[in-house]
Structure formats: C-alpha cells, structure tokens
Amino acid sequence: MRRGDREESGQAVPLYIAAVAGLLFLALVFFTFGEADIQRSGAQSAADAAALAAAKESRSSLEPDLMAHLTDPDYFESVFEPSYPGGPVNTCWKASTFAALNKASLVSCRPLGDGRWGYKVRLKSAKGVSTDIVPGTEGKKAEAVAVAVVEPRCSFTPAPEASPEASPEPSPDTDEDPDPEATDASVGKVSCDGGEEWVVDPEDVALMPDMADLFSVHLAEN
User: Fold this and answer.
1) I need a labelling partner for 209 at 20 to 30 A (CA). Which of 65, 126, 191, 221 fits?
2) Which of 156, 40, 50 lies closest to 93 in space, CA to CA?
C-alpha cells in the first residue's frame, strides 16, 4: 500500500467512528422520547379508567337513595335534571384503586362542581423514564388528567294530581275501614332512551331498571 493510501485510510477511521457515535446518540434520543411517549399514553389510559371508575361508583351509590325516595316526585325531578350534581357519597376511593391497578399513583380526585355530575382525576405513572440522554428526563414520571361524567338517559314526568271529583271523601255513614292492602299511588313515570318506561311503584321496587339504564357514564373534556 502506498503511503498516500495509508494516510487517507487513517483519516477515514475517526470520521467513521464519529458517524457511528452520532447515529447511536440519535437512536438513544429517539428511544428516550419513545419511552416518554409510552409513559404518557399509559398514564392517560390509567387516568381515563380511574375517572370512569369513580363516576360509575357514584352512579351505583345513588341507587339506595333513589329507592328511599320512591314517593317523592320532587326528588325524581331533580335527579333526572342534567344539572343534578350527584349523590352525597364521594367515590374517589374507587379512582385510587384503579390507579394502583394500572401502576399509577393518584395525585388528586374531586367532584366536578361545575354543574355536571362527575369526577376529575389527575395521576402520575409509577415508573419514570429510564435514561438521561436528554437532560432532565431521567426518572421523570408522566402525568395525565381525565374527566368522567354521569348523565341521565331518562326524563321524569310527574303523575297528574287527582281532582276532588276523582277522589271523593268517604261517607261518614259508612263503617268501612281503609283497605290495608291499598298501595301508594305512583308519583309518575320515567321515560328512557329507546322508548323504555318505568312507572314508579313504591310497592314493587323489582320494576326499577338498572342504574346503567337510567344514567350513562362517559369521558368528557376538562
């Protein structure tokens, strides 16, 4: 090999090493950003699941209260209003449970309080970015926020009030006692999506639809 060829070959080696090092660095940078993106996606999925869990639990917790007010038309009217704020039970504990199941930690959870029935959840991924190729990224955990709302699928129509002619007073000359088997009159009916109707009957709670048939739960904008 001539001397000139050896010199050119020697000059090419450092360039080759620098090019390989640059490519490796770029690969690590792409890996870091890819890992961070996966962390964000996982955190968002966990936040969505946690918010939905809290909202669904809130919907379920309303059932005993609903059954306790089967003779109260004012209560039924308020519950099936779109602005109903939700039941008295805070169900953020359910969001915390689902966050842990999805390997995340709950940062905050609260009822919406903006005229909607639902919950806003913020959580953080349990695992952080594993490399420090990009300054400030090592160990950084992804955060995500999700909102889930409960909305009525139905509307309530109160029963018409009985007129005096329709409900005559018992005659003072009769010795008949009130019928002990007589049932309370229905306070009205609940009409749901799809045409399903529920005539509220305090004496037959088995007719009550599932809570999922009465109220829907879905994700919403912050």
Assistant:
1) 221
2) 50
Q: Which helix (H) or strand (E) holds 64?
A: helix 63-68
Supply the pTM of this predicted model: 0.72
Q: Which one, of 182, 183, 220, lies nearest residue 203 by Cα?
A: 183
What is the strand order of the sheet 143-152 is part of? 104-111, 117-125, 143-152, 215-220
Question: How many whole angstroms separate alpha carbon 95 and alpha carbon 109?
Answer: 8
pLDDT in tens, 103-151: 889 999 999 989 999 999 999 988 755 555 555 555 578 899 999 999 9
pLDDT tens-digit profile of 124-135? Answer: 988 755 555 555
- SS3 sequence, 132-145? CCCCCCCCCCCEEE
